[in-house]
Specification:
Elements (H helix, E strand, L loop, with lengths): L1 E2 L2 E2 L4 E3 L12 H7 L3 E4 L1 H6 L3 H6 L2 H5 L5 E4 L3 H6 L4 E3 L4 E4 L6 E4 L1 H11 L3 E3 L11 H25 L15 E6 L5 H14 L3 E4 L8 H12 L8 E3 L5 H10 L3 E3 L2 H7 L2 E4 L2 E4 L19 H5 L2 H10 L2 H26 L21
Parallel strand pairs: 3-13, 4-5, 9-10, 10-11, 11-12, 12-13
Antiparallel strand pairs: 1-2, 6-7, 7-8, 14-15
Helix pairs in contact: 6-7, 7-8, 8-9, 10-14, 11-14, 13-14
């Protein structure tokens, strides 16, 4: 995935940096772990410190000192989660801030303006996420809004994405826009959504509205349905998933990009993902266990620290606990994608130099 001036190898897992930070982990550590692209949150950065402030400081890359790729979500999911504080209309969504109760109004155009100001390499169209379970009539109405907002997002993006002169100062970066497939848990609506987005010709495509309480089998069914329509020569992104075995399965289905808060959130609660399964480091049986968290892992944490020490940090409420646990979990997730990439690699294909926003490498067998 070519995002001038960098390229990102896919399939890729994107750590979530909601407020311009992946919780408990510094940017240089993320670089050392091999993170090539991280996700930041439009809604939260709009509220604090504000997108115009970030624009004045040279954009999110410079503000957070992150030289690699950035993706911003549209804010649609966060507004969706404020069910008691929002009101949806054809024009957009009015909502109250979860911080101070102040009133705000997001339209597709405003969401795009915020993301352009942030300067993300990849922006997302504004969408309406469908809850689970949802009656078909509800899913159809949500899809109607999402498709109308996708068109408005794309038109506004194409008209204004050049209005970030300081992107050139960051190595001639360009911005791209992805559309988001919705449709609830109805296969025909998912297919319809994907087909209409492909007709609009976005730079890439995301599959949203998943991991909202539905069974895993249904998640995979909705992803598979969308993948039959979404072009293989453009990036395909499943939003907000999942457990380690899930992200590997989705990558092997043909998904190029995934993000999830699970490895960082679980780490802060003492849950580690290992080659031997999930490990709750708070367990008393680890009190004198001198083994590394995962004997098969070569991350900085497993090379240096014991399970007993990590348990001690957790039990003592030390801030270092969340940092070390998070570093390990992110290394584990990023390692899964590295293994999948290696297993899928065929004959080497020379990279093409490009001046465009996104130019995927030719698909490999």
């Amino acid at each position: 995935m070519h995002l001038p001036p960098r390229s990102v190898e896919t399939p890729v897992f994107m750590p979530v940096g909601t407020l311009g930070t992946v919780k408990a982990v510094a940017q240089d550590v993320l670089e050392a772990l091999g993170a090539e692209i991280i996700l930041a949150n439009t809604y939260h950065l709009y509220l604090r410190p504000g997108h115009e402030a970030i624009r004045r400081m040279g954009g999110l890359h410079r503000f957070m000192s992150w030289p690699r790729a950035l993706l911003t979500d549209s804010g649609g999911f966060q507004v969706f989660s404020l069910s008691a504080l929002r009101k949806v209309s054809d024009e957009g969504v009015s909502f109250r801030s979860h911080l101070d109760g102040s009133s705000h109004f997001f339209t597709p155009e405003h969401s795009i303006d915020v993301q352009i100001a942030l300067g993300a390499d990849i922006c997302m169209a504004f969408d309406e996420c469908t809850e689970y379970p949802a009656e078909r009539s509800r899913a159809e109405e949500s899809l109607r809004l999402t498709m109308a907002w996708a068109r408005r997002s794309l038109d506004h993006f194409r008209a204004h994405c050049h209005e970030v002169p300081w992107l050139q100062e960051l190595g001639g970066r360009t911005q791209s826009l992805f559309g988001i497939v919705q449709g609830g848990m109805y296969r025909d609506l998912r297919r319809q959504s994907a087909e209409r987005l492909v007709e609009m010709d976005f730079d890439g495509y995301a599959i949203g509205g998943l991991s909202v309480g539905e069974p895993r089998e249904l998640t995979m069914e909705m992803i598979a349905e969308a993948l039959t329509v979404l072009p293989a020569d453009k990036p395909r992104y499943v939003m907000g998933v999942g457990y380690p075995d899930e992200i590997e399965a989705y990558a092997r289905m043909g998904v190029d990009m995934m993000d999830c808060v699970l490895p960082t959130r679980a780490a802060r609660h003492g849950l580690l993902f290992t080659s031997e399964g999930r490990l709750n480091i708070k367990g008393a049986r680890y009190a004198e266990d001198q083994d590394p968290p995962d004997p098969a892992c070569n991350c900085p944490v497993c090379r240096r620290y014991s399970r007993a020490y990590l348990r001690h940090l957790m039990q003592s409420g030390e801030a270092l606990s969340g940092t070390l646990n998070t570093i390990h979990n992110l290394a584990y997730y990023l390692g899964i994608m590295e293994r999948v990439r290696k297993s899928l690699t065929g004959p080497e294909i020379p990279r093409q130099e490009s001046a465009g926003a996104i130019h995927p490498s030719p698909p490999q067998e």
